[in-house]
Amino acid sequence: MTTAFAASAREAGDPQLTPPRRGGRRRGWTPYLLLVPGLLWLTLFFIVPLVQLGSASLQSQWPGAPGYYYRDVNVGNYVDALSSYGVHFLRSLAYAGLATVLCFVIAFPLAYAMAFKAGRWRNVMLILVVAPFFTSFILRTIAWRQILADDAPLARTLNALHLLPGGHITETWVAVVAGLTYNFLPFMVLPIYTSLERADPRLLEAGRDLYADRLTTLRTVTIPLAAPGILAGTLLTFIPAAGDYVNAELLGSDTSTKMVGNVINSQFFTVLGGYPTAAALSISLMILILVLVLGYVRRFGTEEVL
How confident is the model at residue 301 (pLDDT cuts 50, 70, 90)? Predict the structure, then answer.
């Protein structure tokens, strides 16, 4: 009887019981066809250059002919690069980590004020946060160098108060970290603001109604609500800061503040026969950042981000 009912339903044209036509299978290819442009873009501009970079990192130089290479599997390039420039790796991670912490300390109160306290000034504050992107990264860094110059008001004031032991701010690690913090601050503000702006203010009111003080409410309610934005902002700040070389080049000294990005830049463009070393440093930096990011996301990640 059930078979007869199903047959009659198919004859009546019930869409739930009528089997799909053969032509309907063509629809299954549509999502894959939409992926083709993106896959081609990633293949041409990410995978192919990455393979070439990895190949260059394993090449060997022709004896007695600087600047000429032959294909090889010379793992010693990595050993030499890491042993010679390991301090630059540590310095880059330290500068990037310190800049990320400073960005968070500055960005969280600003994002909180924009999300809950700004009122009609919210859009104005948001524009002021985004406004630096309308200026070139290099021009912003050069302007920051002028702000920190020895004859600028900031340095003269600190010297007058005897708070500047070296007598100057530029060409020090302080200037490099300050430049990184300034240039990457919007990447921390915007994700945190987005998370807080989507949060329900009634949750904060519920915390206060339960007799929690402001610090407890911040720790148990506000920060967990902002966790996806904090995670995203941390990644968006730390990753480019670790590989940056503009701030160290324009704000730091020639030796004591150089980051790994400066070494890669010099090996590629100024050192004859430095391509394998530069490629090995690039691959090593990429792997190191990937390991740190995966560990960070695994420890502090949220379902919304992952």
Answer: low
Statement: residue 132 has pLDDT above 80: yes
Banded pLDDT at 86 (limits 50, 70, 90): very high
CB 39 within 8 A of CB 32: no
CATH code at 86-300: 1.10.3720.10
Domain boundaries, the chain: 86-300
CA Rg value for the chain: 27
| Interval 245-267 mean pLDDT | 91
Distances (CA, A) of 269 to 57, 237, 244, 266, 277: 15, 26, 16, 5, 12
Cα separation, 212 vs 215, whole angstroms: 8
pLDDT higher than 60, residue 26: no
Q: What is the pLDDT of residue 211?
A: 66
